Amino acid sequence: MLAGPPVCPSCIICLPALHRCSSLCLSYSFPGGPVPVRLPPYTPQHGQLQCPPTTMAARDTSSLLVGLLVLFHTWGAWAGVEVNMEDRVEVYRGETAQITCMFTSFDGVSGMPIQWFYTTRSGNKQRIYYQNSTKNGVDGGTPFTDRISVNGTGASGEIVLTINAVELEDELEFICSIKTGEGRTQLKVFETPGPPSIEGVQTGISVNEYSKIGTCEVKNGFPKPNIAWYRNNTPLRAVQNVLKMVPSITTESSGLFSVKSELSMTVRKEDKDDLFYCEVTYFVPGGLRMTETNQINITVYYPSTAVSVWVESPKGKIKEGDSIELHCNGNGNMPSSILSFSYGEGKTLEGNMLVLDNVTRLNSGVYHCSSMDTDTFEEVSGNTTVFINYLDPAVVMPKDSAVVTMGKEFKATCNALSSLQTHTVWFKDEVEVSVGHSLILKDATFDTAGTYTCVVTVPEIEGMETSGTLDVNVQGPPQIINPDFTEVKKSLQEMVDLSCNVRGFPAPSVIWSTSDGKILKTTSQTETKEGVESVVSIKVTADITAFCNASNDFGNDAVTFNITAIKAEIPILPKKIKKEGNGVIIAVIIICILLLAILGSVLYFLYKKGKICGRSGKQDLTKEKTSKDNIVVEMKSDSTEEAVLLGVNGDKQSPRTQ
């Protein structure tokens, strides 16, 4: 597209006052200056722009100029050149930019002089490249001398200017001049900024105070980035004396821009939960990009308008003996506010927590908590009522113990004063026997007697209970509990223990006797819950019949035990020798051996004297003849020299038959 004032496809003709024509108008050079020519409609590449409305005089003038143009064209005295270029070329800093210049001519495009210029900051044109039919080259002494090159000779009607390592200072207007025609392109340079940052105020802000909220900053962008503030996803707009956003721009030494924006506003209580953040928009080649910061919120200080007081623990109903913890808190958060408890008779405690251990019903009452601002001395308070539930010790009637006549009915009660509904259960020997405050025992027997426990609980509060006990005695004649045995067999001289367990109230007296009327001495007698237990020990000397006689004011009872005496049999079994008797046994054996030795000596002496078996003298043993039937065996003792001779057939033989 040709450089010049903007036009749109609806334009019919461009007036000479425009000096340069758009793509809809073609410029021809005549001695009198450029003459615009009416062309068919043409749609620009970068949008449609509006031309000024055409007046009647302009249309007449245009018709005249068209006629002159056709006349001059017919003559062919001058050849015109049409140059087309993009309005702008966009590129990132440091990259390569290519600017294309396309042109046409009625005389052909070959050999035409071509020059490239740029417009300086002061508005002057500075040539950077030239080319004609004989030579071409880059002009020296310019910022582009070492960074540009031109592709093409113009023979194809297109030539491209290439700029390497584009810098921020290269954002200029570049001009392609071909003979009498020229085109212009604006080079736009971009640099993506760094990620934005946000910083909120670190201190709290009092309500209704106009204060700084935070600062957003984005660095090193080109062109200048833009910062917008948001609160809860809603863009903020400046309101006089209420909200203000103050931007500041810093040009770095590199030529890049750093932008900072500070948000200040009058703080309300509702702002305590608001989230603030910044949105940064910046241009890039071909479009617009956006990025956001993280979100921040601010601490808003506001005074309390109400105070809440509550029991933190225990949850639910409170009973005597519990430890309770009360908390209080105002609905404000001013650092200058102080919380304090007041309770009982003038008791106070500073702080937002009150702990009471092992409470009683006397701790019931109203507990107050107040919040006072030490700066303004304004005070607000709240309270809560605490009730301590109680359960008094159980009262059993009759108290401690009671006596009931056998066969009669008995009634007892158990009550405990409580602030809540109670539940009572009676137990005997850990077994539930009745439910309710009253215990009714009908047709009492000895089995009825014993210890009864009533347990009173409060169902609404776990662990809240009390208890009481009652010992019930049933009066009546004694009853002897059947013993484990009444028939006993024991050896003579052995001891046997007989036991007699008697129930009854008053406690029965027990007397042991035998069938011959002898009174036995009791070994032991122990009182039990039901009566007494008596034990007697008897030595068995013969068959015995023993009696256990029990009696009290209401009657008596007795039981008979039969003891049978068993004669002991002497077992024919070798007695085991105890280790400790070994010494005595050895001594006895030695004595026996000595006695045998003495006896042997006496017998030997008598033998020698011929006093035994009619012997009168010695006999020579060597003269004896032996025969098969007269073989003898000489048996000698180790302790005596006496010999006993036996025949082969077992007959005794005298020594002289040897």
TrEMBL record:
It is a single-pass membrane protein. It comes from Cottoperca gobio. GO terms for cellular component: cell-cell contact zone; membrane. SUPFAM superfamilies: Immunoglobulin. PROSITE patterns: IG_LIKE. SMART domains: IG (SM00409). The chain crosses the membrane at residues 584-607. GO terms for molecular function: vascular endothelial growth factor receptor 2 binding. It is found in: Membrane. This is Melanoma cell adhesion molecule b isoform X5. GO terms for biological process: homophilic cell adhesion via plasma membrane adhesion molecules; regulation of Rac protein signal transduction; regulation of wound healing. It comes from the Eukaryota. The keyword Phosphoprotein does not apply. The lineage of its organism: Eukaryota, Metazoa, Chordata, Craniata, Vertebrata. Residues 52-190, 196-297, 303-381, 393-471, 478-564 form the Ig-like domain. Keywords: Disulfide bond, Membrane, Transmembrane, Transmembrane helix. The keyword Flavoprotein does not apply. InterPro entries: CD80_C2-set, Ig-like_dom, Ig-like_dom_sf, Ig-like_fold, Ig_sub, Ig_V-set.
